[in-house]
């Protein structure tokens, strides 16, 4: 009788551990923040990158490098990629953002040195302060994964909206390809440190 | 050398194990030689005293070996913040790869330690099972076999403790040749700290099937083998169970790394079971229960084949049955726990 009771108690204790531990673990992590979907690092809000896939699912990453590596493993092109403006903290569509590769490492694991800005002036200020260069054309992150920028169709009677400038360009809106190269070269010559 | 609380604790335990291992080896070898020759009544008393000493030392060694297993992983976890590119224990295990100087020995030492720890715990458990069987007899017929298991156990413990001390003591500053792996482009050096993917997404359903199929199959076989009280399976049945245990071990190890860890961690591309220790600690008891289940099955085999003698015959079958029952409960509890965790993830 005593042995049967001991066995029953042992069984109930074991059942409590087997069921209770997973539930307790789930409950303890209920408030945990999002982590990079590629390497599991905690996401620094200022460098957060968010990929929206074709199905509308949102995938957060700790840096542009992780997002690019994750995208390289996907079959489909994403719907959109949003980067975070390092100057203001707001989310920006990567197709309209200004990218800079500087000496500042945002993520010690991936050694990402690509920085995103909403405004050209902030990108230029970053390059002046920390060195580096603007990323243009195929150098821009996600340039292969995303469809080219297509501004929304203008309403009847309105002018066609101007496409945002790509990369860290001189002021003046969109540049044709030859003019763009000239602009970038001129800007680099003027702004590169030590020149 | 990186000195923190865990490094000091592990080094202290390693020194104790090194001394105990040497003592067990020395005193055990002398006792074994005395036991194998003709024994006078005075010699018999001296031998019994020596055996008590050896077995007490061995019990302490087995306990310290068991403690040093989780301690090693706690130490490795505590080393993670020491290198800028490392995010988990897998990265720590890669430190020294392709490097120059003594640091290049670190990956090899860690590989040895990670294999030696479970081997030590299994050997220690096997010795303990034989020790318990021998204690229940009047004349100690398993004394020679106890030494047969104890001497390799002592030698392995000495090697493991020495490797552990070397691992803690070696300076962990990497030096690469000018054309080394970390001189490439941006981020290239960090790639080595991320675990490789062994099975593609297409293989996941197969891994699920292999994991549940082998585990449920073995659990049912264990239940069937221990159905009759007081009876244990014969040598053929036990051999089949042990072969099943090997298959379960392989399928479950792969399932843990390739399916369970990415699912529990919510990181589909991070196939690393080490991350479960800090991030999903409730998965560790499930893994421990699984390992215990496999070890109990192995110890049943050891008891069946090394514990046989006319004196142990009356209680050998119940002992083997008890070990198989423990194996069944360990595997079943692990399966239930991991399934619940996967369902909640």
Descriptive account of the structure:
With 195 residues, chain A is of the alpha+beta class. Chain A contains four helices and seven strands. Chain A has helices at residues 2-28, 64-72, 120-130, 177-191; strands spanning 49-52, 58-61, 80-84, 91-93, 98-101, 114-117, 133-134. A four-stranded antiparallel sheet of chain A has the order 2-1-3-4, covered by helices on one side. In chain A, a hairpin with a 5-residue loop joins β1 (49-52) and β2. Chain B is an all-alpha fold. Chain B is built from ten helices and no strands. In chain B, α1 (5-36) runs antiparallel to α5 (143-169), α4 crosses α9 (283-306) and α6 (204-225) packs antiparallel against α7. Chain B is flat and about 65 Å long. The two termini of chain B are 38 Å apart. Mean pLDDT of chain B is 88; it is low at 179-188. The interface between A and B is medium-sized, with 25 and 31 residues.
Work out the largest interface and the residue count of each chain: A-B, 25 and 31 residues
Shape of chain B: flat
Mean pLDDT of chain A: 75
Largest β sheet strand count, sense and barrel closure of chain B: none
Set down the secondary structure blueprint:
The complex is a heterodimer of chains A (195) and B (345).
Chain A: H1 2-28, E1 49-52, E2 58-61, H2 64-72, E3 80-84, E4 91-93, E5 98-101, E6 114-117, H3 120-130, E7 133-134, H4 177-191
Chain B: H1 5-36, H2 41-79, H3 89-94, H4 106-135, H5 143-169, H6 204-225, H7 235-265, H8 276-279, H9 283-306, H10 313-344
Core attributes:
heterodimer; A: 195 residues; alpha+beta; four-stranded antiparallel sheet; three-stranded antiparallel sheet; 7 strands; elongated; disordered C terminus; B: 345 residues; mainly alpha; 10 helices; 72% helix; flat
């Amino acid at each position: 009788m005593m042995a049967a009771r001991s066995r029953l108690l042992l069984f109930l204790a074991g059942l409590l551990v087997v069921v209770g531990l997973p539930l307790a673990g789930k409950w303890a992590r209920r408030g945990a923040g999002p982590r990079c979907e590629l390497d599991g690092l905690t996401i620094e809000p200022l460098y957060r990158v968010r990929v929206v896939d074709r199905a509308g699912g949102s995938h957060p990453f700790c840096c542009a490098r992780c997002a690019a590596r994750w995208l390289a493993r996907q079959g489909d092109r994403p719907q959109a990629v949003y980067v975070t403006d390092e100057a203001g903290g707001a989310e920006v569509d990567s197709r309209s953002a200004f990218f800079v590769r500087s000496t500042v490492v945002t993520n010690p694991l991936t050694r990402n040195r690509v920085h995103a800005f909403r405004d050209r002036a902030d990108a230029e200020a970053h390059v002046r302060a920390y060195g580096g260069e603007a990323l243009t054309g195929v150098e821009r992150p996600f340039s292969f994964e995303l469809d080219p920028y297509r501004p929304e169709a203008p309403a009847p009677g309105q002018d066609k909206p101007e496409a945002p400038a790509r990369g860290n360009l001189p002021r003046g809106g969109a540049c044709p390809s030859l003019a763009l190269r000239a602009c970038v070269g001129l800007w680099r010559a003027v702004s590169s440190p030590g020149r | 050398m990186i000195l923190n609380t865990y490094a000091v604790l592990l080094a202290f335990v390693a020194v104790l194990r090194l001394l105990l291992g040497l003592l067990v080896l020395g005193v055990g070898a002398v006792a074994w030689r005395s036991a194998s020759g003709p024994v006078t009544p005075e010699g018999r008393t001296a031998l019994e005293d020596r055996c008590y000493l050896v077995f007490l030392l061995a019990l302490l060694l087995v306990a310290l070996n068991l403690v040093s297993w989780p301690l090693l992983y706690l130490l490795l976890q505590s080393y993670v913040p020491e290198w800028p590119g490392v995010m988990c224990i897998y990265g720590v295990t890669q430190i020294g790869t392709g490097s120059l100087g003594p640091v290049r020995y670190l990956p090899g030492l860690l590989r040895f330690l990670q294999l030696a720890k479970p081997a030590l715990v299994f050997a220690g458990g096997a010795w303990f099972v034989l020790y318990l069987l021998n204690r229940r007899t009047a004349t100690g017929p398993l004394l020679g076999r106890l030494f047969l298991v104890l001497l390799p156990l002592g030698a392995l413990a000495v090697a493991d403790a020495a490797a552990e001390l070397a691992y803690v003591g070696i300076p962990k500053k990497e030096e690469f040749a000018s054309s080394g792996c970390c001189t490439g482009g941006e981020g290239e050096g960090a790639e080595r700290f991320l675990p490789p993917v062994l099975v593609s997404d297409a293989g996941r359903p197969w891994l699920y099937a292999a994991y549940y199929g082998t585990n449920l199959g073995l659990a049912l076989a264990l239940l069937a083998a221990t159905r009759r009280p007081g009876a244990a399976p014969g040598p053929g049945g036990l051999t089949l169970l042990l072969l099943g245990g090997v298959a379960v071990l392989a399928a479950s190890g792969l399932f843990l790394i390739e399916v369970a860890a990415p699912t529990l961690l919510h990181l589909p591309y991070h196939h690393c079971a080490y991350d479960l220790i800090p991030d999903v600690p409730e998965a560790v008891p499930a893994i421990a229960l699984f390992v215990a289940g496999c070890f109990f099955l192995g110890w049943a085999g050891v008891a069946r084949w090394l514990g046989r003698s006319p004196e142990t015959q009356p209680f050998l079958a119940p002992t083997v049955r008890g070990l198989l029952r423990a194996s069944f409960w360990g595997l079943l509890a692990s399966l239930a726990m991991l399934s619940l965790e996967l369902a909640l993830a």
